[in-house]
Give the backbone structure.
Amino acid sequence: IHFPDVWLDYASWHTHGKGNGNEAAVSVLNRGREALPVAIVLHFTAADLEESSGNVNRAREIYEELISSPIQDSNGAEDDVEGNKDRNLSSELKTLAWVQYMRFVRRCDGLMAARKLFLRARKWTGLQWQAFVASARFEWANDGKDHIPRNIFELGLKSFLKIPGCVLEYASFLQGMVFLIEI
């Protein structure tokens, strides 16, 4: 079965329907993750289900597995020795995994732990600009002060100045700051 929707529907049936509950849903999602390792929605759903069941450490393990999985470069070459290109995540998907993991850590462990995870993510060479935007927005949502978010945006711009999406996100943030000053 090569369609993530089938796995998600089956897990949902166990959770919300007449199935055997969360444990059976987690089992289904784990089998789906093995069958379709690049379908990160299965990983995210499994982690969310574990978190909602109170298994925060197991959810953390799922995120750790996801961010430590091999990646596929932009030319389609893989970095694992087994040659499993179809089992590797792209840099964009891995960046999304880092962002979701930062959200999870912020919810479960607090802002300081999320900051440490962002520092760890920054060391990964394939990190995309979306992680900088997400981290800056987390900071902004935390206390509404603009100093730390601006620093994060400007740090991201050092590497991604030629990426229109990154520049537009920073411009949007600054525009929002001007709006708040005018009020």
